[in-house]
Write a structure and sequence with these properties.
heterodimer; A: alpha/beta; four-stranded mixed β-sheet; B: alpha/beta; five-stranded parallel β-sheet
Chain lengths: ~475, ~240
């Protein structure tokens, strides 16, 4: 699956196409589960202090980024690793191809959103190299030739039944095979690859400047194997992943994991300092590819640079009521959900990606759960402001807001329109009126309250609670009267 | 400049330009979750709780002799093993050796452990394959190497390996906190997906009291800490004027 086939422009059509599919239920179940785990795990610790600290470390790292990257590079080179600097996705692909050329038949891969962003798999396959995704979720979507649907759980859009069917078809497992049996099948299939692959490719959760350490977190052990068995390890690391100190790692690993899956720490954490030295095993060559691909542009943006703090935990996806309806595919970009909606215009330009900041109810849940306090709702609004300023906002929306503003500034006309809605038959259920139409398409006709929220000119200053009526005219009970609410 | 040096220079220049209008922000200091402060007497119970919550097993063994006897019984359940050179004769299960990718049991020696996260700290110096390929992973952890927090355990890993080999970390420090697991298939948790499906930690002895200059900051200098030449506590005491054992 090449990255270039997908685009955020297709979001409206792609998301509508999923309306009655099993994806919504599968994604809803998975995200609610992840979020439930996060809530419990956050309650166990002083999470606000942890978030303040993590935000502070990342702000420090980003404002000292050049020095820290130079320090990381120096430490890596001292340890015998090779450091590459990739300005663009094309550069990164070229670097990886050159490392592999002529000596790699098979590559094993740990889950890496950056490798998805850069299109690295396709680049290796173009060299005739077989690329095997080893993360179980990535393994599943590789079989389906689909992109990942979620930052942490790539295959959450597929339920157990679908995966049983897939494995039965590809590997001959029984159609009702248990998750254990399916996992065993995947493990057996991949075990040979770990033992024979010449190249292991991963991303990097963090890069520690003080020690030149590439830090990778996981639960399965596939990344430990990917970085231990093959003779060559290539780590793709976005320049924003730098942490200043060895002593920062424990905090970030714990906060990221508690937020992503609710565990106190990821099952396996690898802290890698260069190739093997007088050790029984381990790679002989380590290549760390530091990737820009638009990150320096985002860093220069006085508002959007805050999004570079992202630790890819997926929490914002897990709480987003819009993401939950469709999973990640309609976003047409490596990163989806709220962070994807902020990063896509930053990486691809508003012209290409403007649908995504509008794919939001602005409920604010994403900002509440970000472990490094990225102000996601504010950033989404800022993209909308910029879209309007550049004349990119949907024409109908601009026209609608302008007419509403004209009406709202003229109380006489406003009152007339409100009365008309109440009196003129058919207006309240009209599918073609702005606002009313959107309401009516998803719900029933508009039902005004009686009495109207607009008091008549001769009304007393206070409207009594006891005056309120339900739409059928019955009295609404006052809270002080007791009894159950209507 | 070569192309490579060009790309590097351009990226660094762009970063510096991007940050030129921005106030540099200071590092906020120690992670608030590194504070610790609970007495070592509680550590073993908490460590066991954390490891078991993640699906691992912990065996408490009073001393080396007890451990040896336990190991003989435990090893009876396995055909072949691959054993870390760091483990020593006392903890060698005495099983026939098999290549790493075929052995039933891998035996490691942890260089440390963390109580708050239920973690064993492993080094690549003993080899990585034996930590990953056999379906059961037995990790020997001396309780004196337990630290209350993951932060402290990682700090010690850096200092510990510095002592053994010219101030450098091994090529890989690995934190293991349970058996391999995944919930990628329909959200149902499955063990032993790639790494070992069974993690057994053999915890030998009792924890050591932390040094007064642990990551939590200055402790009570009047608390007596038994120290011997060459252990971490002695070094700390030497730098604190006016205190002593």
């Amino acid at each position: 699956m090449t990255a270039s086939r997908r685009s955020p422009r297709d979001y409206p059509a792609e998301s509508r196409a999923l309306v009655d599919s099993p994806v919504r239920d599968a994604v809803t179940a998975a995200t609610l589960s992840f979020d439930g785990h996060r809530r419990r795990a956050w309650r166990e610790v002083d999470v606000e202090a942890w978030r303040d600290w993590a935000e502070g470390v990342k702000r420090h790292a980003l404002t000292h980024l050049a020095d820290l990257l130079e320090e990381a590079e120096a430490r890596l080179v001292e340890r015998g690793a090779t450091v590459h600097w990739a300005e663009s996705a094309e550069d990164a692909r070229r670097i990886v191809r050159e490392i592999a050329r002529g000596r790699v038949e098979r590559a094993v891969k740990g889950k890496s959103m950056l490798s998805e962003e850069l299109g690295v798999n396709a680049a290796l396959e173009d060299e005739g190299i077989q690329v095997l995704e080893t993360d179980l979720g990535e393994f599943v979507i590789q079989l389906l030739d689909e992109p990942p649907s979620h930052i942490v759980g790539p295959a959450i859009h597929r339920d157990l039944e679908e995966i049983q069917g897939l494995f039965a078809e590809r590997f001959g497992t029984p159609p009702d095979a248990s998750p254990e049996a399916l996992a065993t099948c995947a493990r057996d299939h991949l075990r040979g690859a770990f033992l024979t692959a010449e190249l292991g490719v991963t991303g990097g959760n963090f890069l520690v400047a003080e020690t030149g350490s590439v830090v990778l977190v996981e639960n399965e052990g596939n990344i430990r194997l990917t970085t231990s068995r093959p003779g060559i390890h290539v780590a793709l690391v976005g320049i924003e992943k730098v942490l200043p100190r060895w002593s920062d790692v424990a905090g970030f690993v714990q906060l990221t994991t508690r937020t992503a899956t609710g565990q106190p720490v990821a099952n396996y954490v690898s802290l890698l300092q260069g190739p093997r030295r007088s050790e029984p095993d381990g790679p002989e060559e380590i290549h760390v590819v530091l990737v820009d691909n638009g990150r320096t542009g985002i860093l220069a943006d006085p508002v959007m640079w805050e999004a570079l703090r992202c630790v890819r935990c997926g929490a914002c996806l897990n709480v987003c009521p819009v993401y939950r309806q469709t999973g990640g595919h309609p976003y047409g970009f490596a990163y989806s959900g709220p962070i994807g909606a902020v990063l896509a215009p930053a990486f691809l330009g508003l012209d290409e990606a403007k649908e995504l900041p509008y794919a939001s109810t602005l409920c604010g849940a994403c900002g509440d759960v970000c472990p490094v306090r990225i102000p996601l709702p504010e950033l989404l609004l800022e993209w909308r402001r910029r879209a309007v300023a550049q004349g990119l906002a949907p024409a109908a929306e601009s026209a609608g807001i302008r007419s509403y503003a004209a009406l709202a500034k003229r109380p006489g006309w406003f009152a007339l329109a409100a009365r008309a809605l109440g009196i003129v038959p058919g207006l309240r259920s009209s599918r073609s009126l702005p606002v009313v139409g959107s309401w009516v398409r998803e719900r029933g006709p508009l039902e005004p309250s009686r009495p109207s929220f607009r008091p008549p000119e001769d009304a007393p200053d206070e409207v009594q609670a006891s005056d309120a009526r339900a739409p059928d005219g019955s009295r609404l009970r006052d809270a002080s009267e007791g009894g159950t609410s209507p | 400049m070569t192309d490579r040096e060009d790309a590097r220079a351009r990226i660094l220049d762009r970063i510096r330009a991007a940050n030129s209008g921005r106030e540099p922000e200071p590092h906020p200091g120690t992670f608030p979750g590194a504070a610790g402060g609970a007495p070592p007497a509680s550590w073993v119970r908490r460590f066991i709780g954390a490891v078991e919550a993640a699906g691992g097993e912990v065996i408490e063994l009073a001393d080396e002799a007890t451990a040896g006897r336990w190991l003989e019984r435990f090893a009876g359940g396995f055909g072949t093993a691959v054993v870390s050179p760091e483990v020593g004769d006392a903890f060698d299960p005495g099983l026939p050796v098999a290549p790493t990718h075929e052995a039933d049991l891998g035996v490691s020696r942890a260089i440390g452990g963390a109580v708050d996260t239920g973690t064993v700290v492993l080094s690549s110096r003993e080899g990585r394959g034996l930590q990953l390929l056999p379906p059961t992973h037995l990790v020997l952890l001396d309780a004196r190497d337990l630290h209350e927090t993951l932060t402290a355990a990682l700090e010690a890993a850096r200092d510990e390996t510095a002592k053994s080999s010219a101030s450098s970390l091994p090529s890989a420090v690995a934190l293991h906190s349970g058996p391999s697991k995944s919930a990628d298939i329909g959200g149902i948790v499955v063990k032993g997906v790639h790494g070992p499906g069974r993690l057994v930690v053999a915890l030998v002895g009792a924890p050591r009291r932390p040094s007064p200059e642990g990551p939590a900051g200055r402790g009570d200098p009047s608390r007596s800490v038994s120290s011997e030449p060459g252990d971490a506590c002695t070094t700390a005491n030497e730098t604190e004027p006016g205190t002593g054992p």
